[in-house]
Amino acid sequence: MSEEYIVCGWDSEIGNFTRPMTDDEIAQVLADRAAAAVPVVPVSVPMLNARLALNAAGHMAAVQAFVDEMPGVDGEQARTYLEYAQNVRRDHWLVEGIRQMLKLTPADIDTLFITAATID
């Protein structure tokens, strides 16, 4: 265990710690810190990971159909991006279009990006 967790119970009368922390207390401190940690939404993730996250969430077929049906230059760019991009950025216009088409919240997209970042 980390040295910063070895003692607790500051006693102001003696100006010292009264006892070492128990393993359960240390575990609780670590659990509290983990629970308080806010996940960071990555700016970009590998496109493979994004596609895998969409598959896992059951959205990939709808995304593919949406992109396949897009007309004109935007459609060509979207299909090229989806097929050949190495990374996908959270702020890309296609991500916002997909979000709206799937009727997802921005937080839902953030969760997909966080999930994609954890795929190895």
Short description:
The chain is of the alpha+beta class.
Note poorly predicted spans. Answer: none
Radius of gyration over all CA atoms, rounded: 23 Å
Sheet with the most strands: spatial strand order: 1-2
How many individual β-strands?
4
- Terminus-to-terminus distance: 28 Å
Secondary-structure element order, N to C:
EEHEHHHEHH
- Overall 3D shape: rod-shaped
Characterize the main sheet.
2 strands, antiparallel
Give the mean pLDDT.
88
Helix content: 55-70%
Q: Beta-strand level of the residues, as a percent range?
A: 5-15%
DSSP summary: helix tally: 6
**Protein structure class:** alpha+beta
Commentary on this structure:
This protein has about 120 residues and is of the alpha+beta class. The chain has 6 helices and 4 strands. The chain has helices spanning about 25-35, 45-55, 60-70, 70-85, 95-100, 105-120, and strands spanning about 5-10, 15-20, 45, 85-90. The strands form 2 sheets. It has a two-stranded antiparallel sheet with strand order 1-2. The protein has a two-stranded antiparallel sheet with strand order 3-4. Helix 2 packs across helix 6. The longest helix has 14 residues, at about 25-35.
List the helices and strands and how they pair.
Elements: E1 7-11, E2 16-20, H1 23-36, E3 44-46, H2 47-56, H3 60-69, H4 72-84, E4 87-89, H5 93-102, H6 106-118
Antiparallel strand pairs: 1-2, 3-4
Helix pairs in contact: 2-6
Keywords:
120 residues; alpha+beta; two-stranded antiparallel ribbon; two-stranded antiparallel sheet; 4 strands; 58% helix; rod-shaped
